[in-house]
């Protein structure tokens, strides 16, 4: 049996939830159903079971601080039925009946972001700090180089030692031993979640499944000396980032499937047909990001299901229980009596709620007429994510609100392109704006359809132009309230952190010297480049590697107190850094000694990287311009057999060509801009102003081959 194609369990809604805050308690009997326990951002822990399709409460705690994580624990090799929650810097423990038995105030100065429990061992992480406690006594401490997203410990009963693993934002899993780093594991994207393979670490107990914010999933064996990469699933379908992972045998073949929840609401089930790589068995789309996922028996004895908890606190069950239907395939299918009564009870509940809402609205309207009435601003929660996509060098801005969105106003003080998103059903309208007095370059309003709680926008920026993008989010609540969220567009906004670079490329060098501290130069690098941790790194110096997602050029930055060295194969990158770093140092009244070494071969190298993209875009533009004329010919002539094969293929592929052209507006202009910048920057470092020759360059870019372009750069 495969999981049912649609949710059949309607479960109570809790408050807004964080990742990994919903678990299933172990069943008490062999075939008994399991209880659900979930913690929300109101600080409430709700525990309930299901009887005859209805939720039966077990316990509910009073509100408090936000619950960031919920884990189950207990003595090793016994049922894990004690409930532990992380709220603020405190860990609380509850029995399965809801009685509190632990309140442990940690020595962490920040809120707990991640937690793992193994027997008497408690592993906690704040933004950069990892702490290990045993029986609530401090054991080990580690300061990470970048933000920690999740923590896990290999099963002690299998590997016979405590091996914590940290998932860090800089695309690294850090394996610890005590308070020391044992080794680092490089992964393909920023890891957001960790889980033990099969729920127990596999046969060896050393296998960890990780999920990344760019939607990849992989399996790594963490041995005592080095990691072994087993498999990785890419994200060809361009789905959302991974938020939660579980292992459960939903098919009933004795092999556990991999259950995955994504931030775009996709729930996926992978099975292991061959022993090697997992294969997608089924998927299901929910309307919100999936914060927690679990497999178990919840609704009815003998029928397993997948339970998902979404961001705004909806719990959804996908069950293997067959929906009994009468009649053949040709007749109208009749739902079972139980199903019909469930639907009718839901309908009446919905009608009652609608009546209640109308009554409360009328009461509010009447009270607002009185002179003494005070209107309070309703608080609402927004879950946002602003990330750079490597595939198309654009930023994704995802806004998720706990209630329906009315509209989102996007304003930017730098030139940006807003790209089309297929999943987006909102109606967009652009307003003209004056860039001069208010430095307003973009003003766009997205009006959402009813019941839209999640909006995804795509933004493409121009390197060298930096500022702030603002999103004004207005939900459908009374009185009208708006929240403003700001996102920094950095000077080198299209650069992404990478583990290594090609040192054989011709590189240009920028050298800075001056009376600045390590923290000061680090803050300048944070200002210039994305994905750099805000906290000043430990040690005396640091090296970061970056790759330009649009062109594939690279950047190496090494700096310490009083000295900074930046190397790139793209002169424009060096030019932007020189301008921005000088400006930042001037603001702080720091005198900088700037020297640079320009490699002529690097210009040729960068042009060779740009030219194939330029040719492709020029050809695409030409084909698109021909489509209308060719279609007119087709209408007049009846058939197109007389056309050359290349023109026939344009007609055949017209839909794909138009789709691609629509997805990449201003792509050609962007490439022209990059070549122009490269030309100006090359001569700027020689002290020559070539702006008068730019029109000549733009003229020859149409239909110019690579050698001709390089020759123009050298002749100038």
Automatic annotation (TrEMBL):
It holds the Pfam family BBS7_pf. The keyword Cell wall biogenesis/degradation does not apply. Residues 378-487 form the BBS7 GAE domain. The keyword Cell membrane does not apply. InterPro entries: Bardet-Biedl_syndrome_7_prot, BBS7_GAE_dom, BBS7_hairpin, BBS7_pf_dom, Beta-prop_BBS7, WD40/YVTN_repeat-like_dom_sf, WD40_repeat_dom_sf. Residues 22-320 form the BBS7 beta-propeller domain. This is BBS7 protein. Residues 495-597 form the BBS7 platform domain. One of its GO terms (biological process) is intracellular protein localization. GO terms for cellular component: axoneme; BBSome; ciliary basal body; membrane; neuron projection. Transmembrane segments: none annotated. The gene is Bbs7. Keywords: Coiled coil. Residues 600-713 form the BBS7 helical hairpin domain. It comes from Nothoprocta pentlandii. It comes from the Eukaryota. Residues 336-370 form a coiled coil.
């Amino acid at each position: 049996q495969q999981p049912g194609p649609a949710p059949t369990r309607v479960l109570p809604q809790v408050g807004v939830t964080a990742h990994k805050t919903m678990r299933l308690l172990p069943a008490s009997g062999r075939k008994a159903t399991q209880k659900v326990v979930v913690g929300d951002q109101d600080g409430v822990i709700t525990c309930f079971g299901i009887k005859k399709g209805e939720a039966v409460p077990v316990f509910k705690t009073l509100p408090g601080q936000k619950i960031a994580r919920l884990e189950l624990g207990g003595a090793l090799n016994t049922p894990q039925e004690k409930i532990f929650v992380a709220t603020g810097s405190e860990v609380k423990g509850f029995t399965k009946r809801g009685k509190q038995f632990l309140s442990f105030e940690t020595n962490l100065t920040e809120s707990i972001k991640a937690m793992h429990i193994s027997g008497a061992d408690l592993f906690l992480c704040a933004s950069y700090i990892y702490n290990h406690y045993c029986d609530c006594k401090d054991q080990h401490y580690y300061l990470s180089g970048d933000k920690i997203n999740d923590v896990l410990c290999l099963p002690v009963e299998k590997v016979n030692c405590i091996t914590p693993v940290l998932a860090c934002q800089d695309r690294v899993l850090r394996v610890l031993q005590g308070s020391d780093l044992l080794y680092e594991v490089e992964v393909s994207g920023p890891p957001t979640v960790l889980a033990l393979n099969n729920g127990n670490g596999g046969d060896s107990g050393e296998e960890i499944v990780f999920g990344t914010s760019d939607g990849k999933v992989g399996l790594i064996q963490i041995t005592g000396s080095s990691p072994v990469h087993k498999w990785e699933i890419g994200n060809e379908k361009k789905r959302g980032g991974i938020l939660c992972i579980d292992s459960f045998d939903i098919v009933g073949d004795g092999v556990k499937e991999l259950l995955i929840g994504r931030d775009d609401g996709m729930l996926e089930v992978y099975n292991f047909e061959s022993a090697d790589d997992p294969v997608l068995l089924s998927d299901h789309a929910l309307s919100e990001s999936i914060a927690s996922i679990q497999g178990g028996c919840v609704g009815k004895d003998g029928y397993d299901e997948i339970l998902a908890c979404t961001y705004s606190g909806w719990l959804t069950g996908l069950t293997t229980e067959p929906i009994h239907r009468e009649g053949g395939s040709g007749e109208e299918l009749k739902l079972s009596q139980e199903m019909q009564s469930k639907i009718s009870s839901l309908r009446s509940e919905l009608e009652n709620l609608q009546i209640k809402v109308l009554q409360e609205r009328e009461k509010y309207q009447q009270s607002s007429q009185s002179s003494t009435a005070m209107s309070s601003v309703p608080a609402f929660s927004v879950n946002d994510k602003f990330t750079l996509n490597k595939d198309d060098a654009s930023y994704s801005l995802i806004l998720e609100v706990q209630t329906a969105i009315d509209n989102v106003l996007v304003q930017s003080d730098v030139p940006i392109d807003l790209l089309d998103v297929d999943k987006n059903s909102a109606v967009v309208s652009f307003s003209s704006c004056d860039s001069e007095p208010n430095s307003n370059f973009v003003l766009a309003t997205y009006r959402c359809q009813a019941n839209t709680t999640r909006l995804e926008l795509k933004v493409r920026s121009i390197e060298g132009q930096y500022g702030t993008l603002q999103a004004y989010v207005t939900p459908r609540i009374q009185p009208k309230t708006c929240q403003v969220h700001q996102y920094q567009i950095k000077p080198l906004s299209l650069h992404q952190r990478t583990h290594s670079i090609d040192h054989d490329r011709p590189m240009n060098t920028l050298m800075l010297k001056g009376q600045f501290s390590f923290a000061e130069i680090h803050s300048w690098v944070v200002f210039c480049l994305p994905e750099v941790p805000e906290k000043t790194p430990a040690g005396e110096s640091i090296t970061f590697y970056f790759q330009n997602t649009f062109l594939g050029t690279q950047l190496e930055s090494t700096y310490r107190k009083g000295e900074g060295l930046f190397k790139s194969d793209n002169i424009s990158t060096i030019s932007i850094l020189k301008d921005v770093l000088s400006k930042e140092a001037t603001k702080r009244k720091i005198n900088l000694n700037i020297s640079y070494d320009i490699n002529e071969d690097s210009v040729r190298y960068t042009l060779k990287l740009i030219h194939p993209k330029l040719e492709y875009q020029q050809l695409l533009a030409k084909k698109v311009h021909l489509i209308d004329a060719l279609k007119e010919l087709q209408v007049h002539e009846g058939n197109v057999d007389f056309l050359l094969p290349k023109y026939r293929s344009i007609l055949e592929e017209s839909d794909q060509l138009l789709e691609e052209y629509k997805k990449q507006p201003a792509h050609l202009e962007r490439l022209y801009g990059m070549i122009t910048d490269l030309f100006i920057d090359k001569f700027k470092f020689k002290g020559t102003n070539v702006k008068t020759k730019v029109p000549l360059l733009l003229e020859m870019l149409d239909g110019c081959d690579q050698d001709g372009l390089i020759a123009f750069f050298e002749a100038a």
